[in-house]
Design brief:
The protein has 337 residues and is an alpha+beta fold. It contains 11 helices and 12 strands. Strand 5 and strand 6 form a beta hairpin. The protein is globular. The protein binds iron/sulfur cluster (3 copies).
Length: 337
């Protein structure tokens, strides 16, 4: 190797090393979290208003053509005549669960009380399911923020099942093509100007639909009013002309579930019992999607170093390779010219 060649190589290696050094800082930095679209629609579930009637579960099934779900241990007495879903599944997009403690005497009380909780997709602001889906089958609408699922695009890899911090997407094992089931905010109904089925049917307004900005104001009003204040709880869709549920403000616990979890969601929860007791997962404010994509990009960035080193080596190899028109080419060595 001549001096010039050596310098070329060292320059290439130095460039590669510089490329490798920068990402050590970038490695710790996630990409910025995504923002909620200004026109985003969402849902408020107020556990204190829920009476556990499960009308929302039945309406969700009917609106989304979901078959009944009967756990095996209940099938004997149920005789497959009544839906008795115990959790989200390939056939169940929403479910009402109950918290019970001690004597189970009083509703919305942590000790010796009980409370209801509704589970379905929270339509994350920066959804992990969208981030991990390799074929774009999970999509977030840029206007409404609804996270939708395209069964035709889905390849059944189940990355979304493992990626969701709230345990929402369910793989339908009974479907020969293994599709995913999750709430899509009844977007097919919304297209026709209708209210999502669970909110439309809820008799108390426990499940309330509306623009997220308006729901946030509604939440603020409820939390600002002292317990016992008379209150007209809207039903169906916020701003809709529907008779309200007239009652009083309950004793809410502090906090709004879904406001910050996983970078924020378009479904918000109010309750009288701490959220972890209601079975809502404890999820930090960092969007897992922003963290994972930040790490991914850092890894790609790191790959620049070996690529640059490879380019340097390729350059040198090319420089040192014999040229067809040079004196020392096989042609000249053959001495036949
Ligand atoms: S709750 Fe899960 S399935 Fe729903 S948008 Fe968030 S990551 Fe996706
Ligand atoms: S919005 Fe529609 S799909 Fe989602 S839980 Fe309510 S009824 Fe079911
Ligand atoms: S319909 Fe309303 S009150 Fe009845 S279980 Fe569902 S959320 Fe609760």
């Amino acid at each position: 190797m001549t001096d010039v060649d050596r310098r070329d190589f060292l320059m290439g290696a130095g460039f590669a090393a510089a490329g490798a050094a920068v990402p050590t800082e970038a490695a710790a930095i996630a990409r910025p979290p995504k923002e909620m679209p200004p026109q985003a629609v969402g849902m408020l579930y107020d556990s204190t208003l829920c009476i556990g009637c499960k009308a929302c579960v039945a309406a969700c099934k009917a609106a989304n053509n979901m078959p009944v779900d009967i756990p095996e241990h209940l099938s004997d007495w149920n005789e497959t005549t009544w839906d008795s879903a115990e959790d989200l599944s390939g056939h169940t997009l929403n479910v009402i669960k109950v918290y019970r403690n001690g004597t189970v005497e009083q509703k919305d009380r942590e000790i010796d009380g009980f409370a209801f909780i509704k589970r379905h997709c929270l339509h994350c602001v920066d959804p992990s399911c969208v981030s991990v889906c390799p074929v774009g089958a999970m999509k977030k609408d840029p206007v409404t923020g609804i996270v939708s699922y395209d069964p035709d695009a889905c390849i059944g890899c189940r990355y979304c099942v493992y990626g969701c911090p709230f345990g929402v997407p369910q793989f339908d094992l009974n479907n020969p093509f293994g599709k995913i089931a999750k709430c899509e905010f009844c977007r097919h109904l919304q297209k026709d100007g209708k209210v999502p089925a669970c909110c439309d049917v809820c008799p108390t307004g426990a499940s309330l639909f509306g623009p997220v900005k308006d729901l946030e104001q509604e939440i603020e009003r409820r939390l600002a009013a002292p317990a016992g204040t008379p209150y007209r709880f809207p039903r169906g869709k916020l701003g809709e002309d529907r008779p309200p549920n007239v009652g009083t403000i309950p004793s809410y616990i502090k906090g709004i579930y879904g406001e910050h979890e996983a970078g924020g969601t378009q479904v918000r929860y109010l309750a009288g019992v701490p959220f972890p007791k209601l079975g809502l997962p404890t999820v930090g404010p960092q969007s897992p999607a922003s963290l994972a994509e930040g790490v991914q990009h850092t890894i790609y960035y790191w790959l620049i170093a070996p690529l640059v080193a490879f380019a340097g080596l390729a350059f040198l190899a090319r420089r040192n390779a014999p040229r067809p028109d040079a004196d020392n080419t096989p042609k000249s060595q053959g001495g036949r010219s």
